[in-house]
Amino acid sequence: MRYAIEVDHVTRVFGGKGDKVHAKALDDISLQVDEGELFGLLGPNGAGKTTLIKILATLLLPSEGSVRVLGHDVVKEYNKIRARINMVSGGEISGYGLLTVRENLWMFSQFYGIPPKVARQRMDDLLERFGLLDKADAKVRTISTGQKQKMNVIRGFVTDPDLIYLDEPTLGLDVNASLAIRSFLRKWVKDTPGKTMLLTTHYMVEADELCDRVAIIDQGRILACDSPSNLKRMLKRATTFDIETTAFPGLDSMPSMDGLQGYNSKSVGDRALTRFVVNDEAVISEIISHISSKGGRIIALGKSEATLEDVFIHLVGRGLE
Ligand SMILES: Nc1ncnc2c1ncn2[C@@H]1O[C@H](COP(=O)(O)OP(=O)(O)O)[C@@H](O)[C@H]1O
Ligand SMILES: [Mg+2]
């Protein structure tokens, strides 16, 4: 298996050591992305995601370390890389408002030297897939944010790249536009084996739903890198049960029991909601009999699964948003 991306001990610093502005945006990052993979960088604002994408897109140089993209070195062989990659950024104004959607797409396709007939065909095909054909001749300044972002995404794919970077592709979009973009991305990777996608996001769901593998990044470092399901398993989190009961005396002084790791109770009116973290699910029956022996009545009991957010909280020590 060939790697589409190989990042080897990359550090990126902004500003010299003596400068007032001195930020280590990336701190000794190493990762490999397989050809054909949909790889995600998940991290909060300022984690270094955009900096890494810019380096991978040959727009920014690493301060230290080496990077190969599609088998070529980003510093020495950037000209072999550029025609084969493309990049889409979310949450920024791009495209020219006075031009129509079609004119914008046409212009970018011509920057890449796509033969006119091929470009037209691809544009129509993509506009149709995004339900944007009826806006094709509208000036970009007149269309909605969601439609603009769809156009941006189309712009990224109109060059038929072997590797595409999407930097927060659904940032700030409504649910429907986000869904349309995500389902397009998923389908593209599935339908075009060998083509690779790297996306950054600070939306858990996006990383969880779309990505084959996710690197969790914070303060310029990779804290973990694996498939979403392995990341969740890695947490080896004891199971969590939420039990709603009528209020009863002694709720916040449960006796110690084998398999009960901890609990946290809060009362809501005449009821109590308690979250029990257990190592061994068998202890639940003991908990329930204790509650009834104290005169409490169970109203609801639910088990919750670990989410990617829990993994993130576990690794970073705080939530994402
Ligand atoms: N051009 C720049 N000059 C100085 N600092 C920068 C520059 N670009 C990014 N940074 C800093 O690098 C860090 C990572 O930024 P960025 O890569 O944009 O993070 P993300 O995309 O994950 O939000 C931040 O602390 C940011 O302030
Ligand atoms: Mg960013």
What's the Cα radius of gyration?
Answer: 25 Å
Specify the oligomeric state. single chain
What is the CATH topology classification name of the largest domain? Answer: Rossmann fold
Q: Number of helical segments?
A: 10
Task: Determine the fraction of residues in helical runs and give it as a percent range.
Answer: 25-40%
Main sheet: which strands, in order across? 6-7-8-3-9-10
Gross morphology:
elongated
Total discrete domains: 2
- Name of the CATH class of the largest domain: Alpha Beta
The main β sheet shows up as:
6 strands, mixed
Q: Give the topology string: H per helix, E per strand.
A: EEEHEEHEHHHEHEHEEHEEEHEH
Strand count: 14
Named once each, the bound ligands are: adenosine-5'-diphosphate, magnesium ion
Mean pLDDT: 89
How many angstroms separate the termini?
Answer: 36 Å
CATH architecture of the largest domain: 3-Layer(aba) Sandwich
Unreliable stretches (pLDDT < 50, length at least 5) are none
Approximately what portion of the residues adopt beta-strand conformation?
25-35%
Let me know the CATH homologous superfamily of the largest domain. P-loop containing nucleotide triphosphate hydrolases
Secondary structure class reads alpha/beta
Walkthrough of the structure:
The protein has ten helices and 14 strands. With 321 residues, it is α/β, with parallel strands linked by helices. The chain folds into two domains: 3-228, P-loop containing nucleotide triphosphate hydrolases (Rossmann fold, 3-Layer(aba) Sandwich); 239-305, Alpha-Beta Plaits (2-Layer Sandwich), CATH 3.30.70. Strands 6-7-8-3-9-10 form a six-stranded mixed sheet, sandwiched between helices. Strands 2-1-4-5 form a four-stranded antiparallel sheet. A hairpin with a 2-residue loop joins strand 9 (213-218) and strand 10 (221-226). 35% of the residues are buried. The model has no long low-confidence stretch (mean pLDDT 89).
